[in-house]
Amino acid sequence: xxxxxxxxxxxxxxxxxxxxxxxxxxxxxxxxxxxxxxxxxxxxxxxxxxxxxxxxxxxxxxxxxxxxxxxxxxxxxxxxxxxxxxxxxxxxxxxxxxxxxxxxxxxxxxxxxxxxxxxxxxxxxxxxxxxxxxxxxxxxxxxxxxxxxxxxxxxxxxxxxxxxxxxxxxxxxxxxxxxxxxxxxxxxxxxxxxxxxxxxxxxxxxxxxxxxxxxxxxxxxxxxxxxxxxxxxxxxxxxxxxxxxxxxxxxxxxxxxxxxxxxxxxxxxxxxxxxxxxxxxxxxxxxxxxxxxxxxxxxxxxxxxxxxxxxxxxxxxxxxxxxxxxxxxxxxxxxxxxxxxxxxxxxxxxxxxxxxxxxxxxxxxxxxxxxxxxxxxxxxxxxxxxxxxxxxxxxxxxx
Amino acid sequence: xxxxxxxxxxxxxxxxxxxxxxxxxxxxxxxxxxxxxxxxxxxxxxxxxxxxxxxxxxxxxxxxxxxxxxxxxxxxxxxxxxxxxxxxxxxxxxxxxxxxxxxxxxxxxxxxxxxxxx
Lengths: 399, 118
Fold this sequence. Notes:
The complex is a heterodimer.
Chain A: H1 2-28, E1 38-43, E2 48-53, E3 58-63, E4 73-76, E5 82-86, E6 91-96, E7 101-107, E8 111-117, E9 123-130, E10 132-138, E11 144-149, E12 160-166, E13 170-175, E14 180-185, E15 193-197, E16 204-209, E17 215-220, E18 226-230, E19 238-241, E20 264-266, E21 269-273, E22 279-284, E23 290-295, E24 300-305, E25 311-316, E26 324-328, E27 334-338, E28 344-349, E29 355-360, E30 365-370, E31 376-381, E32 385-390
Chain B: H1 2-18, E1 23-25, E2 31-33, H2 34-52, H3 66-69, H4 74-83, H5 99-110
Helix pairs in contact in B: 4-5
């Protein structure tokens, strides 16, 4: 009797474990899925994002309720499962790509421009306009850890731009009004240690860091050139790069601020948008002198390198925002001038660069181009699409 | 500059086509067609919105809500829109907007209609 009872209990337990496993497998995870070929598209009119699959060039899901996304960007968790979306209205939304849902959403500021994730993946930082500063959040819970108010020596607040991560669990960012670059060591995120570089130039509008995390550069709007900081030799301070490119001539009006999201580097050159000139500036990354100016169709907004560095793709501010040009890095010639549609806002390459995805805002679609043939190979409907962010960013310094 | 005049031509063509549709009158008394109004609202929301926010609550540029603009004369605002603000990122929009169109957009902003109208 006793033995039988025990046997039947064991059988029952085994059966229920099997049932549980079957239920888990069948209901909770019907199909295993990785995230390496996923990404998100920001739909700024609807305050929504689409989750997309770059292998099949299709949309997998649409997630709504992300607020004002007029200037939105995203970074990824180190496992590339979660996207952190930074909205204009100060919203910070953590999206689960696999379950296609909002994991958590907070309003962390009145007005925000973007964010970054730390080297160890544990801290998400936001760069805010109102109130100007940086906030640090726990990447798992989005709980606030600490704040870095962007207040200069005169006691004035600045908008924070060009926030990136750098090795050593640091964040680097620029103060628009004050004209400063700050390096925050957040190894103890409760007490960030700040190094401030003053008088770096007037009105830094954005910043970026090289792929190796060594050089931080801030583009200047208020004067010509860029401010460069060597993070391997911080005590040498900030030096000015390409400072003389526009001197003596009247700058052209800029109908959209250029962006430095993704440093375009190839071989020994960096390619950056000129401000108020219809040029791409080529900077020698050994001497940091500008060695060429490539005339282009308009005021460049994004100047991005195909992942192999063979070509540079450029889009433009209004009224030339229907145009995309491709520059050959060996000849510095424009080899393609495309007119993909009305208002091209962003370009994002697949990790190895065989495709580029373009957001065509005023035609309400995202187009996918083959980067060898320059032919359109797919098109995905999207409501006023702006930024496109693929998961390779999870594993890149500065993105 | 050639591109600007090309765009102007294109715009005036759009205006002509739009004349047959709904029309509104700016304070100068010049009519703005329904099609052109839609184009202007898209410009305001999307292109001005790049710096001022889609809901006009500000960004790199200041907020353009009725509260933020209160007390500022419409003629001054029109001049800022058309000629820009030297020393700031605000560019002159005169190549793309007539005076009456700038005035109409300012009316939309002052009434806070940007979020109601699409």
